[in-house]
């Protein structure tokens, strides 16, 4: 019997977003297979209960008086404790599968589109080819090429606990994805399809039986391992593919036969094992281990590649004569070690290019094994060897061999060095001040948030990492909550004290992280003071006046709300950029932004294009984390697309026309911005500073329980002060509101701000002409679409503050009203086909999970439960937290 279960919803609303046939087929198939697994292996009647709830939540969407949702709620209340958990697990599996079908469809679309859209129809905002063509028109060929060479995309992986899925579940999803992908192959016959279906069933059954919840939190080194797995499955392959694509486009027919025009423009950074701000589990020894593991992995990869390129390089010396430099290199290699070269000498006679490359691979193996005699000093020495091989091939006429796989190996080394990712250290400014006080007076300093010895040891760890792996393996030190130049000076002082003098201290680039509204406003002044510091001056001299500043999106939004934060960030970036220009500093602005909209998430290219003049200057550095890493880089095709969009937008952001447009718009709409800023902040503070807000927030959202999810190595609170909202990290702040489907961190304050402006004509003009405002409204629209008033009301009712609940709902209505008016729509996301479809298709299923979560929360909030009784509702709650996160496709 076919299981028609869990097919996509066919409501009137969903019908307006036409689902492409292939995607409907995939969702239908996966839903059906899940239905079969639930029937076969769930407890009796499970599928019927899932179906009944699903039908009610779908029907409830079109039921104005809320009767049907109330019935769904009754059904949920009637489930036994075990049944409730089972139903929650079933819906969670459904999301995992629906997300997968959607991703599969994206990949399908990208494949079909690849190479088919003529250049004239490509958008400069998301195609490197079009962006380059546009730039060339504005600044000329030579300057456009120079800019291209300067392009830099620096992605920094963080261990921020935002990926709710366990690794085991993510791996299961990947395997199912591969099976679904294979079904598109037209060569699959009936037998192969039947087998594929059987394998799918096996995998889905496996997923269903895998616990959604981790038993214990991952350790920082588990987090390092997760990141290394992404290196293996994605980064190690797609970056060079991205360069190759770009180069093929730039060179046309000559692609692969001439020196590349595309630079190795990506660099990876990592905070995993380095970021100790509020995470006592990240210690000096973890930092050492994190670097060592990454280095080991990348050296292994380079060795394997060098060997593969070498083995395939079977060019006979009679047909491709080696250059003198190559022969000399071979001579040096022979001299270095006969053992290293003997095998190549015997097995590849008259194949000197091959011999040399195999010896290179041997030296890489030695570098990995820390064999001091044969180790490379660093990546530069390796690149120099590879370039000799390349030049020899060119002079021998083998231009394809020179610029094919060998070039990709060179790109690989340029991108990853011998350390894979630059590990960055981060710590809170208060910790440094406390440590200095402790050093001064160990007895009288009082309790420090982090043991002083540990802080000191961290600097020693950095020094030893630099000695062993090179300065670039770890030289950036970020100071969160920087509030004065002193906060930065403290780090240099501590480094000197730790190593017993400036001459032994590690090379450090201390980077201020500005996070609160006030700190953002003070940023230019703090930077100016910083410039006076001798250590900073010294670094500027050494680096050719390069400098980095980091801006925190989520803490600023937590501080003043999303509207005030967006405007404050723009203003700070504009001023910082102007300050850098005035001081002849090449500045990189490092954007600390995350997946959720309340943390500065949203499409990267749109955000880049809305940046103030000179704030990008061909360099885009950003944090990438948790579910965003898998969403953007998990699949090679999607990763390539993301990288291309970022590169295109970064090039375009520096086009004179973009800079001019943004500057003019900012000038023209300054009064509007000022008004929005003041009103939105007032409104936001009216809520969060209200008497009793913090306990109420803990009552109406699963804030406390979010901290129990074992998804990251760090605690949900920083622990620098007593229990307070201030101490709560921005991620759980966002996570909790999102789970309650209130999501106010993404939109609260906008409605009042727009109401105060009141002029729809002006607002529509701003929407059309001011990229920052457009991005703000579009992001807020997305946030609103993930909000659900009916469900939100139920969460708000868990508290006993009608005034606060009323305030939230009133602002929600106002914000929705204005967003619809400005974008001229009758429904949210009406004009965003793909996104609208995704959100609307999922919503009824998320609703089902939300009702289950509410049931658990009610039990936890309104009844006195002993330890045994608490188990069931808490478990149900944790399962639904995962499920809702999967449904909304982000956490905090
Ligand atoms: P943080 O990150 O709490 O580590 O500063 C916040 C975020 O990424 O949203």
UniProtKB/TrEMBL annotation:
It comes from the Bacteria. The lineage of its organism: Bacteria, Bacillati, Actinomycetota, Actinomycetes, Micrococcales. One of its GO terms (molecular function) is phosphoenolpyruvate carboxylase activity. Homotetramer. Its cofactor is Mg(2+). One of its GO terms (cellular component) is cytosol. GO terms for biological process: carbon fixation; oxaloacetate metabolic process; tricarboxylic acid cycle. InterPro entries: PEP_COase, PEP_COase_bac/pln-type, Pyrv/PenolPyrv_kinase-like_dom. This is Phosphoenolpyruvate carboxylase. Its EC number is 4.1.1.31.
């Amino acid at each position: 019997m076919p299981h028609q279960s869990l097919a996509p919803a066919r409501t009137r609303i969903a019908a307006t977003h036409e689902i492409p046939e292939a995607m409907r087929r995939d969702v239908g198939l996966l839903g059906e297979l899940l239905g079969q697994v639930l029937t076969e292996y769930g407890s009796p009647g499970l599928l019927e209960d899932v179906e009944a709830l699903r039908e009610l939540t779908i029907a409830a969407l079109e039921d104005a008086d809320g009767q049907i949702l109330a019935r769904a709620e009754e059904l949920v209340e009637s489930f036994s404790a075990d049944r409730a958990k089972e139903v929650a697990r079933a819906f969670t599996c459904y999301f995992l599968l629906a997300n997968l079908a959607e991703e599969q469809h994206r990949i399908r679309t990208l494949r079909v589109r690849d190479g088919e859209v003529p250049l004239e129809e490509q958008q400069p905002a998301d195609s490197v080819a079009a962006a380059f063509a546009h730039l060339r028109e504005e600044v000329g060929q030579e300057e456009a090429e120079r800019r291209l060479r300067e392009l830099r995309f620096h992605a920094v992986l963080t261990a921020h606990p935002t990926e709710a899925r366990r690794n085991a579940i993510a791996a299961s999803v990947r395997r199912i994805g591969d099976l679904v992908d294979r079904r598109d192959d037209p060569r699959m016959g009936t037998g192969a399809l039947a087998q594929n279906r059987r394998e799918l069933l096996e995998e889905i059954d496996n997923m269903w039986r895998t616990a959604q919840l981790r038993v214990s939190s991952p350790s920082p080194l588990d987090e390092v391992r997760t990141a290394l797995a992404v290196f293996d499955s994605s980064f190690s392959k797609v970056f060079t593919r991205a360069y190759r694509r770009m180069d093929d486009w730039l060179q046309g027919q000559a692609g692969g036969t001439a020196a590349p025009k595309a630079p190795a423009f990506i660099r990876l950074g990592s905070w995993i094992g380095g970021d100790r701000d509020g995470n006592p589990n990240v210690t000096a020894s973890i930092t050492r281990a994190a670097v060592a593991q990454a280095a080991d992995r990348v050296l292994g990869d380079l060795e394997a590649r060098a060997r593969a390129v070498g083995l395939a390089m079977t060019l006979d010396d009679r047909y491709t004569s080696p250059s003198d430099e190559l022969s000399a290199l071979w001579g040096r290699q022979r001299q270095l070690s006969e053992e290293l070269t003997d095998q190549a000498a015997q097995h590849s006679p008259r194949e000197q290019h091959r011999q040399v490359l195999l010896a290179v691979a041997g030296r890489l193996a030695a570098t990995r094994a820390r064999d001091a005699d044969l180790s490379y000093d660093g990546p530069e020495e390796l690149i120099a060897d590879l370039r000799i091989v390349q030049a020899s091939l060119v002079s021998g006429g083998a231009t394809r061999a020179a610029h094919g796989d060998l070039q990709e190996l060179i790109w690989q080394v340029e991108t990853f060095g011998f350390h894979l990712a630059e590990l960055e250290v981060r710590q809170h400014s208060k910790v440094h001040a406390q440590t200095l006080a402790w050093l001064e007076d160990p007895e009288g300093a009082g309790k420090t948030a982090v043991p002083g010895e540990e802080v000191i040891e961290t600097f020693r760890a950095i020094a030893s990492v630099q000695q062993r792996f090179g300065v670039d393996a770890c030289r950036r030190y970020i100071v969160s909550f920087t509030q004065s130049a002193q906060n930065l000076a403290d780090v240099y002082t501590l480094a000197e004290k730790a190593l017993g003098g400036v001459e032994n201290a590690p090379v450090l680039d201390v980077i201020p992280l500005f996070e609160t509204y006030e700190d953002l406003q003070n940023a230019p002044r703090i930077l100016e003071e910083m410039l006076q510091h001798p250590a900073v001056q010294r670094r500027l001299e050494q680096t050719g006046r390069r400098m980095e500043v980091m801006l925190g999106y989520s803490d600023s939004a937590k501080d003043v709300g999303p509207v005030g934060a967006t405007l404050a960030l723009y203003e700070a970036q504009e001023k910082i950029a102007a300050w850098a220009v005035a001081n002849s500093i090449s500045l990189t602005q490092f954007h600390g932004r995350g997946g959720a909209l309340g943390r500065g998430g949203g499409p990267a290219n749109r955000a880049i294009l809305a940046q103030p003049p000179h704030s990008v200057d061909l360099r885009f550095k950003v944090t990438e984390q948790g579910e965003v890493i898998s969403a953007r880089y998990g699949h090679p095709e999607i990763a390539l697309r993301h990288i291309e969009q970022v590169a295109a937008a970064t090039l375009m952001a520096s086009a004179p026309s973009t800079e001019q447009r943004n500057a003019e718009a900012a000038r023209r709409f300054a009064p509007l911005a000022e008004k929005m800023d003041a009103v939105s902040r007032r409104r936001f503070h009216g809520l969060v500073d209200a008497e009793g807000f913090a306990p109420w927030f803990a009552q109406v959202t699963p804030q406390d329980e979010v901290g129990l999810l074992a998804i990251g190595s760090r605690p949900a609170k920083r622990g620098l002060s007593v229990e307070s909202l201030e101490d709560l990290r921005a991620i759980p702040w966002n996570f909790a509101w999102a789970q309650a489907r209130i999501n106010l961190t993404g939109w609260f304050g906008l409605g009042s701000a727009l109401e105060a402006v009141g002029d729809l004509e002006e607002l529509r003009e701003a929407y059309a002409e001011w990229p920052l405002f457009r991005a703000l409204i579009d992001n807020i629209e997305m946030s609103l679409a993930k909000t659900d008033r009916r469900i939100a009301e139920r969460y708000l009712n868990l508290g006993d503050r009608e005034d606060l609940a009323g305030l939230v709902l009133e602002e929600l209505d106002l914000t929705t009203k204005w967003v619809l008016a400005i974008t001229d729509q009758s429904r949210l996301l009406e004009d965003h086909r793909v996104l609208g479809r995704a959100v609307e298709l999922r919503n009824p299923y998320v609703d089902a999970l939300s009702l289950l979560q509410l049931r658990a929360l009610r039990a936890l909030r309104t009844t006195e439960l002993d330890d045994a009784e608490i188990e069931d509702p808490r478990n149900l709650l944790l399962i639904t937290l995962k499920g809702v996160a999967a449904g909304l496709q982000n956490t905090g």
